[in-house]
Structures are given as structure tokens and as C-alpha cells.
Design brief:
Blueprint (H helix, E strand, L loop, with lengths): L1 E7 L4 E7 L5 E8 L9 E4 L3 E3 L8 H5 L1 E4 L2 H17 L7 E4 L9 H15 L3 E6 L3 H11 L5 E7 L5 H7 L8 H15 L3 E7 L7 H11 L4 E7 L13 H11 L5 E3 L13 H17 L1
Parallel strand pairs: 4-7, 7-8, 8-9, 9-10, 10-11, 11-12
Antiparallel strand pairs: 1-2, 2-3, 3-4, 5-6
Helix pairs in contact: 2-3, 4-6
Bound molecules: iron/sulfur cluster.
The site of iron/sulfur cluster (SF4) has 12 residues, from helix 1.
Length: about 300
């Protein structure tokens, strides 16, 4: 594999564009949490697939379509690259690996599982997070395979809308696994690992940020072992999707109040196209511009 691009953000994040021997490219994001905003402080966000079949409306990777799964080595090498960066810059070694880069990790479950075991063995890392659009069978596979280990895998589910009808306009997978089935799996996961599942909710202006949405969220999640993690939509230049003001996010948080466990998520690396698939897309745009100039 070859590093095509290394971009540093003002918030100490580093984004890599990596090319494999077959010419496919993926992205890896390293986050050094110098301000202690995250639970873990030296974290790598890895990709698990080239492209993605889920096709979330807001996602740059989803627009690219599915190409192939990454191998175990292609996943673990992303951790090695970031660990080398840490060593070279006197930063603490990686203490957590998050599967929230390109692809749906639970649709490449066998390789993701083996990569987690290999990373644990080779780097001694015990803290992981798997972000999913809601692949219910994959959630139960993680319970089965990791329940009796000392590896901690935080489950991170993208909700982004409190009703099936609204959610399927953002995440088409909702037609296959509805919110109730997905939340039942999240609760089973939380109980199996005696923890809370994280429920991601990204605010898109005028679409999922109304008072009614807040009431439905509290009704859906309020009595469950989950933590709601809210953030702003990461601008992807997609027609019909706009980013609310940061103040709107604060108001949304305040309206949720003490009705449930809720925190605001910092979008690392927004200045370096750190949203999933954005750097690859930007690079392709740059390449297209370059090629058309050369013609
Ligand atoms: S958000 Fe995740 S699951 Fe959805 S299309 Fe993008 S990579 Fe796939």
C-alpha cells in the first residue's frame, strides 16, 4: 500500500489517502485529542471497505458505491501507519481503533473481527468502536464473538432520524432493518457488555432538527441503555442537505435536557475533508480538473 496524501488539520487530526496495489484508494483518519474531548486520546479511524453499498444520502462514500471488502492486513496496516506517525511525532501510541471510515464494517464482519483480534495481539489495543448504519445480524455476531473476551467494542449506531419514514430518506437500509429491530439489538448489546450503546444523530437543517424530532427521540431512547451523541452534518455538497449553525446544535442539546444521556460530538478534521469519503472525493475532483486542464 502507498500513502498518496497526508493532510494535517488545525485540530491535530491527520488524514491519509492510501492506495492499494489494485489502484483502489481508501481513507484513514488519525485523531490526537489534545483537548481531551474524546474518551480515547490517540485514536485511529479505519476504513473497512472500498466504497460502500449502503448508500446513505449524506455520505460521500455512499455515492461512490461498493467496490470490495478490505483484507485483514489492509485494515491492520492503517493502524501501523498511524502508530508510526505517533512514534515519529512523540505522541502517545494509538489507544483505540474506531471502525467508522469508509464502508460498513458489519458487512465485512469476518475480516473486521480478525483485524480486531490481530490489532489487540500486535499492538495491545483493547478499546475499539464499530460504527454501523444498523446491520442487525452483525450486532448479534459481535455479542457472540466478543462477549467473553477482554476486548471492549463500543457499538455506535447511526440513527439520524427518529421514525422509519424519515430515516429511510437518509439511510435506505431502514427498509431492511427498521428502527425498532435495530434498537432491540442495541439494547441486547448494551446488556451483554454492561455498557451503553452510542446512538449517533447528525443534525441536517430543516430535516431532522425539529421539536417534534426531539420529542420522538426522547420517547424512543429515553428509557434505554444508550447515549445519544449529536453532531452537525458534515458538509458534502449534497443537494437538499444543509448544515445547521453550531448554535442550533446547542439549542437542540438544551431541549433534550436531562431526559436522557446526551453529548455533543466534535467533527474532527473538518478542514481536511475528514468526513467519510470526502478526501477521496476531493482528490478525484482535483484529478478530474487536472486531467481536463491537460486535455
Ligand atoms: S455513512 Fe457509512 S454506511 Fe452510510 S454510506 Fe457512508 S460509509 Fe456506508
Amino acid at each position: 500500500m502507498k500513502i498518496l496524501n497526508e493532510s494535517m488539520g488545525e485540530d491535530s487530526s491527520v488524514k491519509y489517502l492510501i492506495e492499494f496495489e489494485d489502484g483502489n484508494t481508501i481513507e484513514t483518519l488519525y485523531m490526537f485529542d489534545k483537548d481531551n474531548m474524546l474518551t480515547y486520546h490517540s485514536t485511529v479511524c479505519v476504513s473497512s471497505q472500498v466504497g460502500c453499498a449502503i448508500g446513505c444520502r449524506f455520505c460521500a462514500t455512499g455515492k461512490q458505491g461498493f467496490v470490495r471488502n478490505l483484507s485483514i492486513t489492509e485494515i491492520t496496516d492503517q493502524v501501523s501507519i498511524c502508530n508510526t506517525f505517533c512514534a515519529n511525532h512523540g505522541i502517545i501510541p494509538i489507544d483505540a481503533v474506531v471502525f467508522a471510515g469508509m464502508g460498513e464494517p458489519l458487512l465485512n464482519y469476518e475480516n473486521v473481527k480478525k483485524a480486531i483480534l490481530k490489532i489487540n495481539y500486535c499492538f495491545g489495543i483493547r478499546d475499539f468502536e464499530v460504527a454501523t448504519a444498523g446491520i442487525v445480524p452483525g450486532i448479534y455476531s459481535m455479542i457472540r464473538d466478543f462477549k467473553d473476551t477482554d476486548i471492549h467494542i463500543r457499538l455506535n449506531i447511526s440513527l439520524h432520524a427518529p421514525s422509519d419514514n424519515k430515516r429511510k430518506t437518509l439511510i435506505p437500509l431502514t427498509d431492511k432493518y427498521g428502527i425498532n429491530e435495530m434498537m432491540a439489538a442495541a439494547v441486547d448489546y448494551a446488556k451483554a457488555f454492561k455498557t451503553k450503546a452510542r446512538i449517533r444523530y447528525m443534525l441536517v437543517k430543516g430535516i431532522n432538527d425539529t421539536d417534534r424530532d426531539i420529542a420522538e427521540i426522547v420517547n424512543l431512547l429515553g428509557n434505554k441503555p444508550v447515549k445519544l451523541v449529536i453532531s452537525l452534518y458534515n458538509e458534502n455538497n449534497i443537494q437538499g442537505l444543509a448544515v445547521p449553525d453550531y448554535n442550533d446544535l446547542l439549542v437542540f442539546r438544551s431541549k433534550i435536557g436531562n431526559n436522557m444521556d446526551c453529548e455533543i460530538f466534535h467533527n474532527f478534521g473538518s478542514g481536511i475533508h475528514a468526513g467519510c469519503g470526502q478526501l477521496r472525493q476531493a482528490k478525484e475532483r482535483m484529478y478530474t480538473i487536472q486531467v481536463s486542464r491537460e486535455k
